[in-house]
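Appendix B. Extra example for self-study. Work through it before the problem class; the solution is given directly after the inputs so you can check yourself.
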Amino acid sequence: MKVTEKDVTYVADLANLELSEDERIRMVRDLNSILGHVESLNELDTKDVPPMAQVSDRYGLDESKQGSDRFAYASRNDVHEGLRKSLPHEAALANAPESDGIFFKVPKVIER
Amino acid sequence: MDLTGLTIDSARSAIADRKTSATALAGAFYAKIESDDPKIGAYLVLSKERALSKAAQTDVLAEKGENLPPLAGVPVAIKDVMVTKDVRTTAGSKILGNYVPPYDCTAVARLEAAGAVMLGKLNCDEFAMGSSNENSAWKPVHNPRDLSRVPGGSSGGSAAAVAADMAVATLGSDTGGSIRQPASFCGVVGLKPTYGRVSRYGLIAFASSLDHIGPLTKTVKDAAIVLRTIAGRDPMDSTSAELPVPDYVAELDKPIKRLKIGVAKEYFGEGLEPETHKAIEAAIQKLASLGCEIVEVSLPHTKYAIPAYYLVATAEASSNLARFDGVRYGYRASGVRSLSDMYRRSRDHGFGAEVKRRIMLGTYALSAGYYDAYYLKAQRVRTLLTRDFEEAFKTVDAIVGPTCPTPAFKLGEKVDDPLAMYLADIYTVTANLAGIPGISIPVGRSKENLPIGMQIFGKHFAESTILRVANAYEKAV
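Solution. Structure tokens for the complete assembly:
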């Protein structure tokens, strides 16, 4: 598989990146170099190997329990005021590039 | 008394015995930072007000002769990927150049609750993406052992600050070796705990299934003290494990005699520099002389670790970094035509080259038509790599090998070749994929007098075992 400049433009679009002409040329080169190295994974027959998205189910927390029951401790009841108490409005907006004190402000979404 | 050379226990007892005060200690460290950091570049922000008010609290306790908490008055510093309330946190990125977090990272809060004094925030590769600290948007870090060389990355500032006596202990983060590799390059101790051992709440996410927080310290005992302080279930991180935290410090001196130590032949292959090889061999001989049984093991899929890692890590990163859009926090480009133009230009100006490269690779690996061939394939190989460890740990208690194939390289040496930079992580990424703990300890110097690090892996949640082995080695040399 060879990454072309067209692919780079398409993927940059998906990732919400603009990329200058120079960056695009470099990206074609770098992605091809890295993906070339990645090709070695195809030497492995993995059709019967389950994918692993995270590690928590690899260690025996409570082996008498199955599946999601083993992680029941990680869930909690919904509470209005508690752990996830919301930030005060002022603190939540303090880092916003633009706000009106109530909402985050962004450029117009719908063009007439 | 050499105040900036103290370890955690010696600093705490010096304060308890009134030989110094926490305030004087913090002052000595700030003086050291002021004189030495301009040539090293480890610190991005100094949080003097917060530090001195914390130190004053300890001094009140000490004056009354009260029992001091375990890290009372101990000057620490934090990698800039962990958020700190009211103290600017940038993750080494321009996109967060003015970000002042409204809350504290759990690990930082736990250190401070135990009395630690946070001196400031430490330089790192942008969003912890890098192996040399050269991807910091602000400035490079120079290795205190040789200023022409990199300190390693991405926790380069964390390792350099400890090595240069500009903090007693620091926190780093490790997604593919970012604690252990800089610890090795700077000649300090660096510990990546088991996935789930330390809460990630407040760690700015790079790759959530691979990210870990851990300590960098001068001694193995200090690493045990910090780990004991920051470990344990946190309701704010649902992946933090509900398992009791052992007293790692009390277990340090348990005998290591007859422990079975595995040596994986795959970690001694092509690319390992002869001097490093020799130093690791000598360290293994030392462990044998201490009564450990050395056993050869095999981790047959090791050569596939880098490709699998760079697909999984970048895929997760592309998703995690989608949040930087110029709306709620961070940099926003000016003069934009529309909302989507704002997203693009803010991200384009805000992110550095390596971050964009990883977002692109990750987005590509997740995109329609390539998901199965890249992302899913890498996840299947992740299973194989994890099974390698599970198999090996049926016969051994720990596995040792080099932390890095070479000592610290020169600044600028690998900046133009991302693949060469990635390959430097060959021995460290495996522990992140499998979620097992690993510690790097100094085991010697090269002819050029550069530190060489040995890595010790353990089973899930067996931090006590690897700390014990590391401690026994440290005491014997």
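Self-check: The domain at 3-230 of chain B is CATH 3.90.1300.10 (Amidase signature (AS) enzymes). If your reasoning did not lead you there, revisit section 3.
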